[in-house]
Every structure is written in C-alpha cells, then in structure tokens.
C-alpha cells in the first residue's frame, strides 16, 4: 500500500511537471506551427532566476521574478529569433531554435560557471496520508499543476483571447481576415508557455535542488516526448502524455532491473506510438489546403 501510494503521487506530480512543460511546446506548435527547442532552456533560466533572488530570503519574490523574467525572455526570443522567420522553411526555424537553446546554455555557463548550484526554495517535510509518509512538495506540485491546467483550459475555451488562439491555430489567414492580430496571439502564446516553463523550473528544483546550465535540457526533451505521445498541438493530449510519462518513469525507477534503462523505455514508448498512431493519442490529422 505504501509503495503504491508513493508511486501514484510521485507519478502524478512528475507527470504534472512534464505536462506543464509540454503545454508550452504544444501551444506554440499548435498556433505558430513551430517546435521551440529552446523551451527547455527557459526552464533553466527560471531556475537560475530563482537562485539569484533567493538571496533576498523571500521565495515568493524569487518565484514571481522567475515567471516575469521568463515571460520577458520568451517574448524577446519570439520577436528577435522567430518572428523574422515567419513563412521560412521549417528546417530554418528548427536550426534557429537549436541555436537559441545553445546560446542560453552557453550564457548560463559563462555567468554562473559549471559548478552545480544547490537551491532550496521551501523547507518542506512530509505528511502522513493514509498512514503513508508523503512529501509535501509532491502534493504541492500536484495541486498547482492541476489548478494551472484547469485555468488554462478554461482560458482557452471561454475567453475572447483564448478563442482567438484557437482560430489562429486552425487557419492563420482566415483569422487575420476576421481582424485577429496573429502576431500578437503568437507573442501571447510564447509568454504563457514561458510562464509555465518558469513554474516547471520551480517544481523541478523542489524535486532535485541541483542547478546547472543543462538543468532544463532532459525535462524539456521528455516533455516534448509527452506532447508528441499525447498529440502535438492538443492541450488535453499534452496533459495526458505528461501524466503517462511521469507514471512510466516513477514505476520504472522502482524496479531495480530496469531502473538504469528508464530513459530508453520512455523514448521507446515514443517510437511505438509514432509507429502505431503518428498523430498521438489525442492528435488530429490535418488536411493540407492546396
């Protein structure tokens, strides 16, 4: 019972983090039709921002500044690196995204050096749940990710800006003819995705408080994997893929024989899904207009 409950909560909390990062990938792809491979490094920037502002001994200020800085950075990256490539080939955009990723990692290495930084945001212990000790950080992560996902879903579905984002994702040309500012919607999408990346950086630090310039690289890749498994471009798909991947990782880590191959198992699932259902679980086939 103890092992089951612990694995369940850890799987849900880790899956929630992956889902939060995957939402950034899937929203940008769904609206801008590009893969922002620098997204994982915005997580790293959020982590270092928290590290810097934790010198004030005020974790809430550090979190606020991390979200704010990541939002500004996401908007700047979109304006400077991606907006001039609007209409360019997907390969050109992909290469630019990889270049931005390495640029952010290199800047972090220059500024903060290669030594790992230990960041303790909150001093959280464990509580007893049905007689089983559970980390408060895992429960907090789970609660916040659920709230974020619900709020984002309601925002997309019921607000005017959210409906405009749906319209742009369906047909940019038609949305522009209807008076929607397509460039503005893409900027807002990058801002939301970057804010989610900053929160993901916080929760990753709460799980493992060691910060390096590659802090967001592997979580970013796994979250992208989650987005593809769930259906790239689908918000519910990103959530489903993130939760699934979180469970797989936590269960595999508990089995001694396969624990060293956890990453290989996760990426093998991606390959199988792409072979069986290329659009992912909740992805939809798009008809190309000619």
Task: Report on the architecture of this protein.
With 290 residues, this protein is mostly helical. The protein has one domain (2-215). 72% of the residues lie in helices and 4% in strands. The strands form 2 sheets. It has a two-stranded antiparallel ribbon. The protein has a two-stranded antiparallel ribbon with strand order 2-3. The longest helix is centred in the first third of the chain and has 31 residues, at 2-32. The model has no long low-confidence stretch (mean pLDDT 90).
Task: Give the N-terminus to C-terminus distance in angstroms.
Answer: 57 Å
The biggest beta sheet is recorded as: 2 strands, antiparallel
Helix content: over 70%
* pLDDT averaged residue by residue: 90
Q: What is the spatial order of strands in the main beta sheet?
A: 1-4
In short:
This protein has 290 residues and is mostly helical. The chain has helices spanning 2-32, 39-53, 59-82, 90-112, 136-158, 160-170, 172-177, 182-207, 217-230, 235-254, 262-276, and strands at 117-118, 126-129, 132-135, 210-211.
Features:
two-stranded antiparallel ribbon; 290 residues; mainly alpha; 11 helices
Please give the structural blueprint.
Layout: H1 2-32, H2 39-53, H3 59-82, H4 90-112, E1 117-118, E2 126-129, E3 132-135, H5 136-158, H6 160-170, H7 172-177, H8 182-207, E4 210-211, H9 217-230, H10 235-254, H11 262-276
Antiparallel strand pairs: 1-4, 2-3
